[in-house]
Amino acid sequence: MDFDLIIIGGGIVGAAAAYRAGQLGARTLLCDRRDPGRATDAGAGILAPESSTRDGRLWYDFALDAVDYYAVLIEELAAVGVPDGELSQAYSRCSKLTVALDEDEAAALTEMEQEIYARQDERRPPAAECIRRISSTEARDVYYPLLADASAVLLQPLARRVDGRLMTAAIEHGLRSRGVQTVDADVSALLLEDGQVLGVRTAAGDEYTAGAVLIAGGAWSDAFGSQLDVQIPVAPQRGQIIHLQLPGQDSGAWSIVNGCSGYYQVPWPDGRVVVGATRETGSGFAPHATVVGVQEVLREALRLAPGLHHAAIHEIRVGLRPYTTDHLPLLGPIPGVKGVFLATGHGPTGLTLGPYSAKLVVEQALGQEIAWDLAPFSATRIIR
Ligand SMILES: Cc1cc2nc3c(=O)[nH]c(=O)nc-3n(C[C@H](O)[C@H](O)[C@H](O)COP(=O)(O)OP(=O)(O)OC[C@H]3O[C@@H](n4cnc5c(N)ncnc54)[C@H](O)[C@@H]3O)c2cc1C
Fold this sequence. Notes:
Blueprint: E1 3-8, H1 12-23, E2 28-32, H2 39-42, E3 46-47, H3 56-79, H4 84-90, E4 91-100, H5 103-123, E5 132-134, H6 136-143, E6 152-162, H7 164-177, E7 181-184, E8 187-193, E9 196-202, E10 207-215, H8 225-228, E11 235-245, E12 256-259, E13 264-268, E14 272-276, E15 280-281, H9 291-304, E16 312-323, E17 330-333, E18 340-344, H10 350-365
Parallel strand pairs: 1-2, 1-10, 2-7, 4-12, 10-18
Antiparallel strand pairs: 3-6, 4-6, 5-6, 8-9, 9-10, 11-14, 11-15, 11-16, 12-13, 13-14, 17-18
Bound molecules: flavin-adenine dinucleotide (FAD).
Flavin-adenine dinucleotide binds next to helix 1, strand 2, helix 2, strand 11 and strand 16.
């Protein structure tokens, strides 16, 4: 056997999986073909489950552990020699505002707020982390100078932002120091014998054998379904997101801003503000920007922050989120086949959940005890 574990897909999930496998001393191969539309490269990078009410209690509990794992991962990467500068560009703490712009949105915010406060009371976070209301004036004066007049604003003092592309590069740096092998390859088939996956074959005809194979192919993961006689229930959901530039602005300390309508803005140092995003379910594998998508994102960006009026359009990114119908990831073994595991389907929150999901599934694949019961994330809940 060539490897203990082969991982298909090198987005944030596959890279984090390979890193963890290497850390556990497993002989590991990471195969990636860097498709255009790789979600990790387009992700906005908001890590703030504490103020999110969209995805239910299971998602929330898992996401809290997942954001805690970031702090561990960052420390570990620093310890294996990833430079501090690289890590601080990839990940940092910041605040986040949730903003209602009219009375309807303010009513929706009040409902969200009740759920957030109930969860907050249950967890009893330190006072500095408590989510609270602030005035529109304070929001603009202290946290986000570009903000529109708001009807209501919730402040989350301690959130985090991650640049998916840079974070994945930092994890790759870390996994190389763990002895993981990587190959730029299109995995075209699984090696399958008597209901057991034994390895992979690439489009170039190379074959690699392994004790287990982990499919972390993002929106492309269902390509292996027909061979396994199942449908892996993940589909591409296109997201268009725009990087704006405000020359001369010191934006590093500005807050993330989330509108009640679902659109958001993520500021980075040196005047870069990322505004997004479309959520195009049913888009297919078509990772290009569209006129209507760009129009939608810019319209909503200006509604939240009229101060962006003269910003330069620096870059438009398009990613295909690995979407599942119930907004939960697909983690763990595939029923009826031995030696193959899934870590995909993270949809719009894969930068938040992905590294932690990957860690747990790798531990499971390598026969270790794991800190979470992954059964609720099993593909059996929706697989056909
Ligand atoms: C616009 C946008 C905004 C987002 N904002 C946020 C956010 O604020 N917070 C958050 O938590 N998440 C966010 N996300 C979601 C997050 O980016 C994704 O859930 C996450 O990046 C998915 O990672 P992944 O590794 O599963 O997939 P991907 O990053 O898509 O990577 C999959 C990789 O697998 C490779 N691959 C597939 N098939 C094969 C094969 N057969 N052989 C070899 N390689 C293969 C592909 O080439 C690709 O490199 C956002 C996404 C988008 C698009």
